[in-house]
Amino acid sequence: MSTVPVAVTILPHGEGIALPAYATASSAGLDLTAAIADDIVLAPGERRAVPTGLAIALPEGYEAQIRPRSGLALHSGVTVLNSPGTIDADYRGEIRVILVNLGGDPVTLTRGQRIAQLVLAPVSRLAWREVSDLPDSDRGAGGFGSTGH
After folding, report:
1. What is the pLDDT of residues 105-133, one digit of tens each?
2. Which CATH number describes the domain made up of 27-122?
3. Is the dihedral of CA 59, 63, 66, 67 positive or negative?
């Protein structure tokens, strides 16, 4: 496992909240927390961009992916709406997490609560090569459940 240095700025409303850390030695993601002054109540079906109080500068060739926390999704129905969200290497604004409550009850978010995971990932660039016909494959054009049940 390699380590990639990432510059981070703690914004004023994020002061006093610990920097995200890996929960275990084999964890792929760091837990992001809510940097909010007052509780946020997410009604069923409601979505909100929740601030983390962090801004980062990723090195070229990397992205940060924002993913749901499984416990929050299972126990309360709260998930990351645009999962995975992408933070590009040239973005310098605050990381905010778009959460949605898909459960049947209101959910209260509190300051410092773990709300999502951040996973660092290398980026490859696509280079188009236009062709008149694509090579055959066993699957062909089948999609949306065409490979079985």
Report:
1. 999 999 999 999 999 999 999 999 999 99
2. 2.70.40.10
3. negative
